[in-house]
Amino acid sequence: MPDYNPWIDHHPDHGDGKGGPATVEVPGRIENVPWQTRPAVPSAYESALADTLTAIFAADIGALPQIVERLNRAGPKPPDGGDWTEERFVAEMRRLGA
Predict the structure, then answer these.
(1) What is the pTM of this model?
(2) Could you give phi then psi for residue 39, rounded to 5 degrees?
(3) Which residue among 12, 45, 68, 93 is buried most deeply as judged by most CB within 10 Å?
(4) Are 21 and 52 in contact (CB under 8 A)?
């Protein structure tokens, strides 16, 4: 069973990505996958970021300045290699679809 949904189509002509006749599930013809909205296996960076954020939230930290502070101490660097800022974190979450 795949650990992502290979049927998600990100073609720009498909509008909102909700699919069409070619992507509608027909019972018995398409396997249900547990990762319905995941178009690919997470990268090592995405997994490290998710693990770090999980630990941050488990420590009951939810304010953006404290999240950014913790990421700079213990998390992966942003893709551009700089330090995390509030703006960079929000932009990265938007890019990742969070």
Answers:
(1) 0.66
(2) -80, -10
(3) 68
(4) no
